[in-house]
């Protein structure tokens, strides 16, 4: 069998190896999955502009993000329960991230504690995803734990916090529901141990299944963002993940947010949202370079990465492809996938005449 050569090869290999219910959990989008499909279709629909005879000596993919110089503009997105696809779970992801110098945004719903990853002999650059908890003190405790992780090993904990704001409730994922997927008892979200879940109550007869349940009573709002910003140690980078609207981008700027991730949660929440490719330009215009932008959703090729940078992002996050590669071959496969994407980006840069990422702007689009 031909070894995997691109992200799609890893997806096909993962599907052949995973339990169908796990595959449905991994791949399903919200409702009719139109947004999930749009994420995948929008990047290839953009055309690139070929430039020739441009000087390329000293070309590189380095980018500065949050005061840190990264080898390339690819980050690993926060996704839950890597143990569902590989026995080494998030440890395998961390090993691949370290080997490829790829920042890893660890999910709050990971099955491996951040302390274990920070204590690896060669830990990756770790960021940590936060979900606002029902009690503010639990949100702060989770953030503090992430920032302090690895202190005993004389290593830094999370270098940035990423508050996910686009999923106060789960989306309607019919494909996952039809599969009968259930998280096995052997896997749990270890960072949420001991925290208080939202207090749910039965809806009255004929009442609203969501609005009368109490599940939204503690849903976060901008006041909670302001409170968290004030509680964090000075200089802690706080990002918001799940921004699609320029008005929300303006509000984030007003609340002192350090960076935004343009995301529609992989199309897993509200269906018929625009693709992230479509939403990115308006958010970039609203931010106007005052804070950095990242984008996720449907990134499968190096050309997708180049287009994202041309539309105003400083980097991209990959989510499902990470789990595809883990399912196919653990840490070595994931490290290979990241290198493939980076190599594809370099080819795209060379053929559009971009010596560095600073050269990439809207002019590379046809």
UniProtKB/TrEMBL annotation:
Residues 1-366 form the FMN hydroxy acid dehydrogenase domain. Its EC number is 1.-.-.-. Glyoxylate binds at residues 131, 173, 263, 265, 268. FMN binds at residues 78-80, 107, 129, 164, 241, 296-300, 319-320. GO terms for molecular function: FMN binding; oxidoreductase activity. The keyword Flavoprotein applies. Keywords: Flavoprotein, FMN, Oxidoreductase. Its cofactor is FMN. It comes from the Bacteria. InterPro entries: Aldolase_TIM (IPR013785), Alpha-hydoxy_acid_DH_FMN (IPR012133), FMN-dep_DH (IPR000262), FMN_HAD (IPR037396). The active site is at 265 (proton acceptor). It is an enzyme of class 1 (oxidoreductase). Belongs to the FMN-dependent alpha-hydroxy acid dehydrogenase family. This is Alpha-hydroxy acid oxidase. It comes from Castellaniella ginsengisoli.
